[in-house]
Amino acid sequence: MNTKLPGNLLLGIIIMVIASSCASRPKGLTAAAPFDINKYTGKWYEIARTDTWFERGLSNTTAEYSIRDDEKIRVVNRGFNHEEQEWEQAVGKAKFAADNHVGRLKVSFFGPFYSTYNVVEVDCKYKYALVAGKNHNYLWILARKTTIPEKIKQEYLKKAEDLGYDTSELIWVEHNRE
After folding, report:
1. Which residue, 170, 177, 174, is CA-closest to 59?
2. Residue 21, pLDDT above cutoff 90
3. pTM for this structure?
4. Distance CA 127, CA 123 (A)
5. Cα angle vertex 20, ends 14, 26, to 5°?
6. Rounded to the nearest 5°, which phi and psi values hold at 8?
């Protein structure tokens, strides 16, 4: 499992995070409320996502959330790298951006640097979620299983398009490994 980052890449990430720290969500986006972190914890499968450098080339991607002893949230992102033929994993932490009943979190995988994670939509049983980042470069459709009903998929795509996302650019994640 490759966890090393070249020095220039790490420096670039730090500069990017600092430069974009005032951007917290796309215009018109509101996070889900009421939001229950206890129902949100557990394993989620990525159904679709925007193409991001940190997930490029990965399939079978998942995110798992659990409550830590300090009441922050442990985040474990995992995916299979086909080129390297190995699983990759990143462990981070999250905390609420403000109100703990609103699905707006700050997530960090790099020490003190946080990025915004907005749960835009989640169904009442917490089986499906639409998540957006700090800008239009970050969008995920998540589910508790490796598939999502067509009706939910279309609702989430419409919501994302209404918020200004180009959903034709989404990567539909393959889940064929355990």
Report:
1. 174
2. no
3. 0.84
4. 6
5. 140
6. -65, -35
